[in-house]
């Protein structure tokens, strides 16, 4: 019986090669999408799942409700806070703090030789080096090869992972590294006091160099990291807690409210600064607080990928259902004969489901072959650690689940319909039952397919329109041909000024500014201003520091007053118009000369600039001040002279900039970016979404078009005699083509009516995430509708025209 089923399935597939090919390709695309996205989802959802008691681990974060600005969410507390929490709060098993750090590493050798690994200049995010308390190992468990957590109680001790030992000392004899010396940033000398094994699991905690936190207090780093300052926040500092068994997060957060009011003072009102617990299990998908290590996945994007994969599989299954039921007349006699010879309906259902299973299995094999190329073709969606291993348990489980689900989804309805035929009628050529019902279902499925396709077409146009707006809108400052790079903050101010002056002398350079950040940046530095005017109030203000070239280089427009004077410490400030209005001045000129209490001094406002965007266009313009503070300025903005925009001249200028940089800072790696590229990175997730909907649109149109192509072929085949009679009676080719195309175009227009409000709802909600956005104009929906109709006409017209041009004699010669 099984052999008979397989033989019949194979003969059916080879007899109808076009429809078999359409089904296999459509199902293979759908299954490959599910496998690829399932592999990505499994990888992303596997981060740090191996930690024991991870449900009791939380990160300490804070939210600050600000006056005149969006709420600020910070991934850290001040340096002295974790130790105070450890002493004052109950219900905690342990509290651990660590600090990310970026440094060059010197490895002393014998006979005065040494190896030096330079750091990347300006790279504040580091996945290798941290300063950590011994409690770190109470939360995150490692296998110790030598030493124990207690070694971090002493300053100038370091624990290395096996990977670090191999990198620094070139050996797998890990014990030989014990007692060796390493020098970080030419100033911090530490001794290897412990060796741990690297985790072979998927994790964001890829630290290999762990220096004792006590080293901070014993060196000049104490001042740089504000170890005793309750008002200085650094995103490099992280603190985690592990709750005692049976203790709820709510119980600890209730204690954090009075704790914050006690230590974090000077804010607008009570409880405006909140310390909270962020579950460790959410850390990998955190897009609110952020972190300076590991990677971050965007959960909505991941859900979007999974939803698109499911829709693609459903569309491919719809093709199978439509083509199978449309072919029902061709198998009616076969079913009638089987029933006359004693086949039961259940046996027929099993047969047809088996045929579907064979076809889905072939599609699954093809999709497995396509899996690696598919993952390689879309690097923007595929994390670096994802690999396309076919025979992993996860891939096999996903594949089997898809095989069973797709076989049932695609095959059950056609099997149910085909097995319902009445033998007496089918053998007399009297048609099949429920034809009108099947016809309505088939049309409904075509409408569903094109509804999904048109939703993606509208979304693609809307997202592309918004992305063009974001990348081209005037942000209130110039951003073209500006190169950005940084030096070490430990470098002397004289060296930094020397580099600035020498860069300004290069022939391909227009202006040079030494600053701490460009006008628009993803991060921010906030300072609290207690304004004592007619209506006193406190507010957190964005601060940008730069030299006197900052305002002219970025072409910020002065509305009143003048630029601030050169100074190593803040003496004067320039504010933006939003801040002037927040202070109560309707005319920018009224703000000139007003005194602001800043950093323990009384500093006058000497200028007001027009508003400019400080972050991406998702956010509103915030109150901002500009001043010069040479101590904090370690970044350079270099405006290139673009004479004719010759790429060779630009490259030569960049080489000259690098040579000048290396002549003053030979031990640092020169790494630069263009400002417009940095601004484009503000919209990384939005660009991914644009690519995602583009890809989804292409695949859904392809699958829907393939299904429509097959249905058009079947329709033309079934109406061959009708077309022949019409031609004999004088019908023109255009008339017949219109007749065959009209029904399909009508279905697409119905899909447009259904899809338009759906697409508007989702796109309107997405656009609300931006303070500056385009509108969903009528032309977007009209263009999408025209595109869908054009696709349908191109797909159907091939068979329509071919049928209209056929010789009617061949169609009618059997009459």
- What does the radius of gyration come to? 34 Å
The geometry reads as: globular
Q: Total number of helical segments?
A: 24
Count all strands and give the number: 24
Features:
seven-stranded mixed β-sheet; alpha+beta; 16% strand; 47% helix; 815 residues; 13-stranded mixed β-sheet; 24 helices
How would you explain this protein's 3D organization?
By secondary structure, this protein is an alpha+beta fold. Helices cover 47% and strands 16% of the residues. The chain contains 24 helices and 24 strands. Strands 1, 2, 3, 4, 5, 6, 7, 8, 9, 10, 11, 12 and 13 form a 13-stranded mixed sheet that branches. Helix 15 runs antiparallel to helix 18. About 1% of the residues have low confidence.
What would a concise description of this structure say?
By secondary structure, the chain is α+β, with helices and mostly antiparallel strands.
Strands, helices and their partners?
Elements: H1 2-15, H2 17-44, E1 57-64, E2 72-74, H3 81-88, E3 92-100, E4 105-108, E5 114-117, E6 129-132, H4 136-139, E7 144-146, E8 157-161, H5 162-169, E9 181-184, E10 188-196, E11 209-212, H6 214-217, H7 221-224, E12 237-243, H8 249-263, E13 273-279, H9 299-326, H10 332-340, H11 345-377, H12 393-418, H13 423-427, H14 435-472, E14 482-486, H15 493-504, E15 509-515, E16 526-531, E17 537-545, H16 550-553, E18 558-561, E19 573-576, H17 577-582, E20 595-598, E21 601-609, E22 624-627, E23 635-640, H18 647-664, E24 673-674, H19 675-680, H20 684-718, H21 720-728, H22 733-767, H23 778-805, H24 808-812
Parallel strand pairs: 6-11, 8-10, 17-22, 19-21
Antiparallel strand pairs: 1-2, 1-12, 1-13, 3-6, 3-12, 4-5, 4-9, 7-10, 8-11, 9-10, 14-23, 14-24, 15-23, 16-17, 18-21, 19-22, 20-21
Helix pairs in contact: 1-11, 2-9, 2-11, 2-12, 2-20, 9-12, 9-14, 9-20, 11-12, 14-20, 14-22, 14-23, 15-18, 20-23, 22-23
